[in-house]
Amino acid sequence: SIWHLSKCFDTPQVKSSWAVAPTYLQVVDTLIPAFSDVLQSVFNWEEGTDHKIVRSGRPVINLLRTGQEIQFRSAQHADRLVGPTISHLFGTEPGLWPDVAFEKSFARVRHEKGSCQKLFEGTPEGLGNKWEQLANVPEGVDEAENRRRITLHTADNPFVSATYFSNLCKIYGHDPAKLEAYTKGTFTSFTKGTAYWNYADRHPHVTL
Q: Do residues 14 and 87 lie in contact, with contact meaning Cβ atoms separated by under 8 Å?
C-alpha cells in the first residue's frame, strides 16, 4: 500500500491506478483496510477530508488532494479488467489469479506519463502457473528484465504472532511442500505424483 500510494504521489498527473485481489471479498476485507490504514498512519491523510473511500459497488479510493482515483478490482472477474489506462498496478496473492487476469491487467499499465510499474506480493502456489513463471527467478535485481524479487519468511514477520506461525505449521505439517512455500516463500511442486497421495486403505480385501 505504501508503494502504491507513493507512486500516485510521484505522478499526480496520472489519475488512475489499480489494486487487484483474487476476489471481491479480499478487496473489501484486506486491500481497502490496508490502504486506509496506510493513508492515515503513514501519510496522515484523514478520511473525508483528504481522501474518500467507496467500499460498495465499484470500490475506489478518491485522493481528494491530488484528484486521483485508486480502483480496486477482482481477478476473479478477469473479463472486467478492461477500460482505463493506468499508471501502475499492485496485486495481492497473484498465485490465486487466473492466467487471463495477468494478461488483462498488464495491458492497462501503459500511461505515457506514469511509472508503468507493477508490484505483486503473495505466497507461491505450486509450479506451472503464471505467478510461478513470473516470480520464480533468482533473488535480487535482474537489470536485464527490469525486475526484482524479494523473499520474506513468515517467521520473520513482526506483524504476525507466534501462534499464527505455529498454527500454520500444524495445518501444513503433513505437506512439506506447502509448508515450505507458505513459510519460506519457496516455489515448490504441490503435485504428489499420484491422484491419491494421501489414500489410506480401510476396506477389507475380497478374494474371488
A: yes
> Which residues does 180 contact at the CB level (< 8 Å), separation at least 6?
186, 188
Burial label for 50, CB within 10 Å (0-12, 13-18, 19+), is middle
CB-based contact 28:55 (threshold 8 Å): yes
Bridge partners for 165 per DSSP: none
The residue among 151, 134, 145 whose CA lies nearest residue 186 is 151
What pLDDT sits at residue 128?
94
Q: Is 34 helix (H, G, I), strand (E, B) or coil?
A: helix
Instruction: Output the CA torsion sign for 39, 42, 85, 67.
Output: positive
Place of cell 499420484: 194
Would you state the cell numbers that stand for residue 54, as one nine-digit string?
A: 467507496
Q: What does each C-alpha distance from 150 to 32, 44, 79, 124, 186 come to in angstroms?
A: 24, 28, 30, 13, 11
> What was the pLDDT predicted at 194?
46
CA 27 to chain centre: 10
What's the predicted TM-score (pTM) here? 0.86
What phi and psi, each to the nearest 5 degrees, are found at residue 128? 90, -10
**Rounded CA gap, 19 and 73, in Å?**
6
Q: What is the DSSP letter of 45?
A: P
